[in-house]
Amino acid sequence: MKCLSDYLWQTLVPLLFFSFLWMLFKYIDEQEKVEKANQERTEMELKFLKSQINPHVLLNNLNTIYAYSIDKPSQTPDLILKLSENLKHVLYETNANKVLLEKELNFIENYIEFQRIRTQGIKKVKYTATTDDKNYSIAPLLLITIIENAFKHSSVHSEIHINIEVVNGVLTLKCTNLFDPNKTQNSDTIGLKNLKKRLLLIYPDQHELQLNEKDNLFSVLLNLHLN
Predict the structure, then answer these.
(1) Looking at the domain assignment, is residue 26 inside a domain?
(2) Can you spell out the DSSP letters for 81-133?
(3) pLDDT, tens digit, for every residue of 178-227?
(4) Whether the Cβ atoms of residue 223 and residue 170 lie closer than 8 Å to each other
């Protein structure tokens, strides 16, 4: 019996040990496959969400240039230069997961300048941007969704207020505009739904997005912890 007990001990213990190791490595391998699949799905979804943004923004700019080439041809070259800068930003720099905040702000300023021209005499724009450091990074084409939504859904002969401030690595974007309650509500737009998805994918637990509608005033407050 002693010999049998020793034999079983010497046989079963290594067998159980190696069986445990095999199950552990199999579990780790499965987890890696699941994580890889989730990462690929996230990357594909981000690319799809970005593809929804790019053509729409650029099409608006092209329409503005077309109108100016007819009415004010002397100012068209400057607009073409701004559009060229934005095209470069969208086509080349936004392929990265993060871009310099300075470049993203320049993209936004060019966009707002186009909108100022396009809505001249119809809407007023008050825009300010300050940062305590130019070396922050941010996910590309993230803030433009909020700003574009304000121009798209604001009432005629109203003011749009846009303020961007970065302090100690925290970006705060405040944007307000009047809207027509008889039209589609601002918070239901595809662009803002797109933004919510991107924030959850890129900045989980690192952002706070507030959308408010009161007395025909729509406001957006975004707090974002930059890396």
Answers:
(1) no
(2) HHHHHHHHHHHTGGGSS-EEHHHHHHHHHHHHHHHHHHTTTTEEEEEEEEES-
(3) 988 777 555 567 778 888 988 988 899 999 999 999 888 999 999 999 96
(4) yes
Helices first, then strands: H and E counts in the chain: 5, 7
Whole-number Å distance between alpha carbons of 146 and 220: 7
> Strand, helix or coil at 49?
helix
Q: Looking at the domain assignment, is residue 2 inside a domain? A: no
Global confidence as pTM: 0.72
Count how many domains the chain has.
Answer: 1
Q: 165 — phi, psi (to 5°)?
A: -140, 135
Q: How far apart are CA 25 and CA 21, in angstroms?
A: 6
Q: Would you say residue 46 lies in a domain?
A: yes
Q: What's the CATH code of the domain at 50? A: 3.30.565.10
Domain carrying residue 160:
42-225
